[in-house]
Amino acid sequence: MNIQTVTFQDFSFINVISPGKLELKYLKNNYGFDTLHLDDYINKIQTPKVETFKNYSLIVLDFPYFSANGAQPVLKTDEKTNKPFLENLLEIPKSTLPQFPSSEKRRRILSTQVDFFLGKNYLVVLHEGFLTPINDIFTNCQKTMQNRREYLSDGPVFLAYRIIDSLVDSCFPVVNEISSSIDKIDRELENVHYKKTIENISITRRNIVFFSTMIKPIIPLFRQLEEGKHKELNGSMEPFWGNVLDHLQKIWERLEDSRELIEGISLSNESILSFKNNEIVRFLTVITSISFPFVIVNNLYSMNIAGLPYSQHPWIVWVLFGIIFTAGVGIIVYFKARDWI
User: Fold this and answer.
1) How many CB atoms lie under 10 A from the CB of residue 14?
2) pLDDT tens for residues 205-253?
3) How far lies 335's CA from each of 80, 279, 338, in Å?
4) Range of the domain at 286
5) Is residue 107 part of a domain?
6) Confidence (pTM)
7) CATH code (residue 63)
8) Domain-embedded: residue 265
9) Of 142, 168, 194, which marks where a domain is finished?
């Protein structure tokens, strides 16, 4: 089974990465977790929440991570039936998740869910393995007794706080990358690669909105924890939850600043494109006006009408055609030099 456990005194830290059929059955039988909670984790239909029950408390949170190709994580399936493990275990239909195009090569922010089951003498963490702080803390606890004493001696609530605090702090590099992307877009406005700039603006705006939708529902949860509305998770932990809330609010403020900045850059880019289009229209108007006499001459000498001046000298017609062709080539070269085509 893919269940890792580290113990200090009578307290156990259980790390479960990408749980499958055996892992979920083990957790249900040995810890008495509600079947619906396990099902909700697999189907990713839970919203961030904090709930307390008779034997354990449940904290559900979403956190961001960057995907290089925009692909969503794939759920484990049973080799025999090709169905999700929990669907076979509980016979509950699987909900479908939105998929990003596999051809997308740019870095998009995706979300991954983490479930914390807090009991009297244990903490069970279910996650997909995309968030390194969870595995780092678990590995540190495995290494030395001193680390186990540091992380596990104060019980499951404090350990859950340490993990959540690390996960929240890991959001700051994501915010920093968004800021770097905005700076890069701002520099790209000085160049002529407008197609690339528009694409970067679109992806960055999408990342900011996607990130904001993850952070927004989490903030009220930690405000409730700071205010002591969950007795099993509060007590002496209220100041610590307030620390997490402070970090979340800072992330939210930076996202709002980034949103305003990218909107301003987007408007600037649209103004530049509008000016460029006006310049192209103005140039085409001038060219049309200049070429109008040549068009008339070309139309006249293309018709079979007797008595046209110089009609008995065909070479003049070819000269006119040569002038028109040269002008057309010149226009194309000019467009290419200005990066308009």
Assistant:
1) 22
2) 888 888 888 888 899 988 888 888 887 787 778 888 888 999 999 999 9
3) 61, 12, 5
4) 280-337
5) yes
6) 0.68
7) 3.30.460.20
8) no
9) 168
Residue 157 domain-assigned?
A: yes
Question: Are 137 and 1 in the same domain?
Answer: yes
| Mean pLDDT (whole number) for 153-171 | 92
For the chain, the domain total comes to 2
Q: What share of the chain is helix, strand, coil (3-state, %, to 5)?
A: 60, 15, 25
Whether the CA torsion 266, 270, 271, 272 is positive or negative: it is: positive
Give one DSSP letter per residue of 153-178, joined into a string: TT-HHHHHHHHHHHHHHTHHHHHHHH
Per the CB < 8 A criterion, the answer to whether 211 and 178 are in contact is yes
Rounded distance between C-alpha atoms, residue 164 and residue 148, angstroms? 17
Strand 11-17 versus strand 122-127 pairing type: parallel
- Domain assignment present for residue 245? The answer is no
Give Cα separations from 109 to 123, 196, 235, 280, 318 (angstroms).
28, 19, 35, 37, 62
- Conformation bin of residue 230: beta by default, left when phi > 0, alpha when psi is -120 to 50: beta
> How do 11-17 and 3-8 pair as beta strands?
antiparallel
| Final residue belonging to a domain, choices 108, 135, 168 | 168
Q: Is 247 helix (H, G, I), strand (E, B) or coil?
A: helix
Looking at residue 12, its pLDDT comes to: 93
Two structure tokens written together for 282? 């103005």
Chain centroid, CA 286 distance in Å? 46
16 shares its domain with 154: yes
